[in-house]
Amino acid sequence: MSGVLSTVAEAHSVDDLRRWAETVLPSELSDFIAGGSGTESTMAANRAALDRLTVVPRVLRGGPDADPATTLFGSRSRLPFAVAPMAYQRLFHPDGELATARAAAAAGVPFVISTLSSVTLEELAEIGGERWFQLYWLRDDAETLDLVRRAEQSGCRALMVTADVPVMGRRLRDVRNGFALPPHVRAANLRFGARSSAHETTGAGSAVAAHTRAEFHPALTWDHLDRLRSCTGLPIVVKGVLDPADAQEAAARGMDGVVVSNHGGRQLDGAVASLTVLPQIVEAVGGRCRVLMDSGIRSGADVLRAVAVGAAGVLVGRPMLWGLAADGEAGAALVLSLLGDELREAMRLSGCADLAAVRDLTTRVVC
Q1: Residues within the annotated binding site for FMN?
Q2: Which InterPro entries match (predicted)?
């Protein structure tokens, strides 16, 4: 770390953990976490949008310590965020999703299990805590609905359907690295998980992208979500929404929430930054469903900004992988601790005792 840190415990920010993780991970794994699609312009836009949003703090509002607790889709959370669904976490630490799920449970925030988790739904159920399941709709409808049943049986409290991956975006870092899964990492919940095209290095680009082309449904429609709505009583959240019209459609069809997301800049390069359209989507749904946001969250101040312009909460993605790579469960727990401390401090400094007060803050976008 060039003398900056001697132990992970000395990290004071997510960026400290990112830099530490990059010293211990092979370059292709650092790229797998950090990279976006194309020129990575949307990934940069996410960060720029957050940096341009300023908050007008209130003063002389003395009161109790800030309380950022909330309820998200029936799950009580000590903080207004959940751990985002991220694939193949055993790439970054032997415990993989077991470590991040334990950290989330200890912090009292929901953990979203990816369809492409390298640990099974049933193993993660043993950890406890609030768990949601992120669903990629597969070409095989029967296997897709079997995943839903397994999620229900293992105690997941919500389903999060990712809608923005008809194909995987062209992630040039992975393409140039010829990225493929090592033999010990697999999609543990799926029939093709033990050995798949995701493991086959061909020299012709990303094996993981080839795998998703082969297995994911390429033409998902609202009819698929109507079918899902008829098959489960769990809350359904649509992830990957950027147009207010799509958010209105989700609400009209009885979806319980949307995640305003450009997949962290990993799908359509040139897509709008999530924060930029968040207020419009909140207005469009008019309270008929909850609105979360992801893409670019790196600090408690970022969480405050998102909530101030209408988000019920956010999803935290890449920071969790940096923490996991840096120090397993302890590193993942440190990320959540840092974000929680930063959020509470930001709330106190802006004169907010709770999240309702955060939503009443005035914000300004500066150019």
Answers
A1: 85-87, 114, 134, 162, 239, 261, 294-298, 317-318
A2: Aldolase_TIM (IPR013785), Alpha-hydoxy_acid_DH_FMN (IPR012133), FMN-dep_DH (IPR000262), FMN_HAD (IPR037396), FMN_hydac_DH_AS (IPR008259)
Q: Tell me if residue 94 falls in helix, strand or coil.
A: coil
Domains of the chain listed by start with CATH number? 8-54+76-352 (3.20.20.70)
Give 110: exposed, middle or buried? Use CB within 10 Å, 0-12, 13-18, 19+: buried
- At 238-267, the pLDDT tens digits run 999 999 999 999 999 999 999 999 999 999
The whole-angstrom separation of Cα 144 and Cα 110 is 22
- Interior CA angle at 19 toward 165 and 334, to 5°? 80
- In terms of pLDDT, which residue wins out, 281 or 196? 281
Annotated catalytic, 184?
Answer: no
Tokens of 162: 């990712």
Taking phi over 0 as left and psi of -120 to 50 as alpha, with beta for the rest, 60 belongs to: left
What is the amino acid identity at position 259?
Answer: V
SS3 of the chain: helix, strand, coil, percent, to 5 = 45, 15, 40
Binding residues for glyoxylate: 136, 171, 263, 266
Please enumerate, as own/partner, the contacts of 351-354 that have beta carbons within 8 Å and a separation of 24 or more: 351/57, 351/58, 351/59, 351/60, 351/61, 352/58, 352/61, 352/66, 353/61, 353/63, 353/64, 353/66, 353/67, 354/66, 354/67, 354/68
Amino acid, res. 305: R
